[in-house]
Amino acid sequence: MRFDSVETGVYPTLVYPPYASTAKRGPTQAPLRIRAAEPVQTNIAVSRNLILPHDTDLTSHGQGEPLGEKIVITGRVLDEDGKPVRNSLLEVWQCNSAGRYWHKRDQHDAPLDPNFYGFGKMLTDDEGRYRFVTIKPGPYPWGNHHKAWRPAHIHFSLFGNVYAQRLVTQMYFPSDPLFDYDPIFQSIPDLAARQRLIARFSLEQTVDDKMLGYEFDIVLRGRDATPMGL
Amino acid sequence: MASNITTSQTIGPFPHEAWRWGVDASNALISGAPTVTISGVIRDGNGAPISDGWIEAWLPDAVAAESAQAIPGFRRIPSNDDGAFCIEVSLPTPATAGKPVLFATIFARGLVKHQFTAVFLEDDSGLAQSEILAQVLADRRATLIARKLGDAQYHWDIWMQSDKETVFFDYV
């Protein structure tokens, strides 16, 4: 396993004044590049028993259908060599179609949907593919600045096959008019890196008249990321 | 060659419900080894506690001792309203001198990329021979060392900024 250095601009700028919360929280020292045997060789092993059937269908958690636009999202998780990241835990969380999170601290004056909680988890398959069904999240205001609204997004948490591949990110939707005004999205200097966070609409993945399809591939750090035995 | 990796974004303030299962699965500890507790506070550049942060601890040398756990060698812990956290750590037997007792990943609102770090115990006899600490500037090594408070109790604060800024890693 090898971890190349990441080019300047691919990661967000850790202290980015337009995103106010970074001012006192983003580290000011450059990360120290080190060699450490364990993190690049091992990772957590999540039992399939911890993944329940309804974890991949976020629309199935209530008594009825959630409000909003039902969608399916799928993609492959790959390493930098294009090899699949297999049997790897992936978690998602998001707000509902009205822009409200199922969270006690979310004060946005939008309705909670009793049939939509907005969280799921799954394992990638032997090809590194994942797939889940959900509702398109709404934009929401967040108080960072005047007229601050987040583009619609879904949070992704990935473990990869080894510890140092860990990634938390957000998936956005094509052609969102809020991209140019969102300091979280804008904290990524590299334009191509920003574009890689935008899912692609897919007619192929669209399911009849049931739900629209999106594809979102994810490339984790590391070369030759699937160790022997996985 | 241009990198094609997927870049990072903040966890935001709202992952708690989605991540709760991992907290539940990792913190009711069943361990076949002796344990110690490492507690502390995550602080921002002003010293203010970060009350919506998260720590994930990875204890590769404790996996065997925790084979009865739902997720052996792993902890997921949200900071509390005071920014405080507490991690119960299985000590490997035999002891592995000079190695971290855990690798930690830090997440929070306002932290647009999660940060990797590690912590050692101050009474580890192998600190002077540690391959990882040897790569850290001498005057910053203390940020990675948990101070002994008492029997099986250690203290370790995480500082995101300031002259106490914790050393964060990027792996080769």
TrEMBL record, chain A:
<dbReference type="InterPro" id="IPR012785">
    <property type="entry name" value="Protocat_dOase_b"/>
</dbReference>
<dbReference type="InterPro" id="IPR024756">
    <property type="entry name" value="PCDO_beta_N"/>
</dbReference>
<keyword id="KW-0560">Oxidoreductase</keyword>
<feature type="domain" description="Intradiol ring-cleavage dioxygenases">
    <location>
        <begin position="73"/>
        <end position="101"/>
    </location>
</feature>
<protein>
    <submittedName>
        <fullName>Protocatechuate 3,4-dioxygenase, beta subunit</fullName>
        <ecNumber>1.13.11.3</ecNumber>
    </submittedName>
</protein>
<dbReference type="GO" id="GO:0008199">
    <property type="term" value="F:ferric iron binding"/>
</dbReference>
<dbReference type="Pfam" id="PF00775">
    <property type="entry name" value="Dioxygenase_C"/>
</dbReference>
<dbReference type="InterPro" id="IPR015889">
    <property type="entry name" value="Intradiol_dOase_core"/>
</dbReference>
<dbReference type="Pfam" id="PF12391">
    <property type="entry name" value="PCDO_beta_N"/>
</dbReference>
<dbReference type="InterPro" id="IPR050770">
    <property type="entry name" value="Intradiol_RC_Dioxygenase"/>
</dbReference>
<dbReference type="GO" id="GO:0018578">
    <property type="term" value="F:protocatechuate 3,4-dioxygenase activity"/>
</dbReference>
<comment type="similarity">
    <text>Belongs to the intradiol ring-cleavage dioxygenase family.</text>
</comment>
<dbReference type="InterPro" id="IPR000627">
    <property type="entry name" value="Intradiol_dOase_C"/>
</dbReference>
<dbReference type="GO" id="GO:0019619">
    <property type="term" value="P:3,4-dihydroxybenzoate catabolic process"/>
</dbReference>
<keyword id="KW-0223">Dioxygenase</keyword>
UniProtKB/TrEMBL annotation, chain B:
<dbReference type="GO" id="GO:0016702">
    <property type="term" value="F:oxidoreductase activity, acting on single donors with incorporation of molecular oxygen, incorporation of two atoms of oxygen"/>
</dbReference>
<dbReference type="InterPro" id="IPR050770">
    <property type="entry name" value="Intradiol_RC_Dioxygenase"/>
</dbReference>
<keyword id="KW-0560">Oxidoreductase</keyword>
<protein>
    <submittedName>
        <fullName>Putative protocatechuate 3,4-dioxygenase alpha chain protein</fullName>
    </submittedName>
</protein>
<dbReference type="GO" id="GO:0005506">
    <property type="term" value="F:iron ion binding"/>
</dbReference>
<dbReference type="InterPro" id="IPR015889">
    <property type="entry name" value="Intradiol_dOase_core"/>
</dbReference>
<keyword id="KW-0223">Dioxygenase</keyword>
